[in-house]
Amino acid sequence: MTQFERVPPTGLASPADALMSLKVLVSRNLPSAGQKVLLSRADKLEIVQWREDKPAPRSWMLEHAQGAAGLLVTLSDKVDEELLSAAGDACRVVSTFSAGYDHIDLASLRSRNVRLGYTPDCLTDAVADITVMLALMAQRLGRESIDLVARSQWPSQPWHPLLLCGQNLRNATVGCIGFGRIAQATMARLIPFGIARVIYCTSKLGQPASEDLYGLKSKVQTEPARDHDQLARESHVLFVCCSLNDSTRNLVDSAFLSKMSKTACLVNTSRGPIVSNDALADALDKGQIWGAGLDVIAGEPDISGDDRLARHPRCVLLPHIGSADFDTRHEMARISAENLLAGLGLGSDEQHPTRMLNEKPL
Question: Which residue intervals define the domain D-isomer specific 2-hydroxyacid dehydrogenase NAD-binding in the entry (predicted)?
Fold first, then answer.
């Protein structure tokens, strides 16, 4: 397979039509659902697409962004002033194959009146599933148990009544930093496990969430926490489900973790830098908390097997696979392609830019 592919506009009536085509830069192979959407408007687009299953080199992005009306990128692609300058005044829209957009310089988009499309809704269920899995793995010593088998130590490990015993969710108080779609979907999945209470905080501390998306209040005691200290002190399992910004970066630090119970678990499926890696590793080493389940970590993906959290027996660390089921990734591809077309005014009657961060330029 060639490194990249340039698909010229198809079905043009005259050479003049070619001059009216819109160049779009696509930084990765897309699942078929997204590719189909892009090619549906091949009559209006010149598609320049990286075709290897690895990140497009920065130099390639800068070279081929020139004159692009739209950019379709992934989390690993940094969209900053340099890239937008390379695209120039032609650029109208950036569409990211992700729910998060901290890899994108919003100020630069705003100054250039470039719209931003993202995929926040379709991955809720997939991420909530992984979040529950990590909570159970952290509580029930999943990492230690797997390691015992993988190291061929099971035959020589004498059984005793409390061997590899862990915590459980029955009658637990469950806390959430952030209480949007993913947090509430996670709580809905935990109700059959017998949780007793949900406490949470939004960006407005002490204020109730504006929406009860899954009818949680009718099924389990649900209330806003007074502050982060209450979340730390009272949660048997604490879920990090908020966005990354200046107020949440390193929110879960040594002081926060020191307030948690020795039988409590921390689960982060949001953004790595919200939790201090060193503080969490220290807390696990000292037995300040029971365990941790992470799908994200500060510094990813540059995490070696020797990293303190990667090798800690009480930490289950996944390589950011929260949205990684086939249906979800195909839906993300479709939406990101539709967002790209919508931002260029090429969406069909059924396609609207409803998943744009802002209906107008930022």
Answer: 133-322
Tell me the β-bridge partners of 117: 95, 356
Span 276-299, pLDDT tens digits: 999 999 999 999 999 999 999 999
pLDDT of residue 16 exceeding 90: no
**Domain 22-99+327-357 CATH class label:** alpha beta
- Structural domain boundaries of the chain? 22-99+327-357, 123-317
Binning the chain into helix, strand and coil, the percentages to the nearest 5 are 35, 15, 50
SS3 at position 74: coil
Cα 344 to chain centroid distance, Å, stands at: 26
| Topology at the third CATH level for domain 123-317 | Rossmann fold (3.40.50)
* DSSP H or E stretch at residue 198: strand 197-201
Mean pLDDT, the chain, rounded, equals 92
The one catalytic residue in 228, 236, 320, 330 is 320
Angle between helices 124-139 and 142-150 (to 10 degrees): 70
Q: What is the mean pLDDT of residues 231-235?
A: 98
Is 320 a known active-site residue? yes
CA-CA distance, 190 to 35, in Å (whole number)? 36
Using DSSP's 3-state secondary structure scheme, residue 182 falls into helix
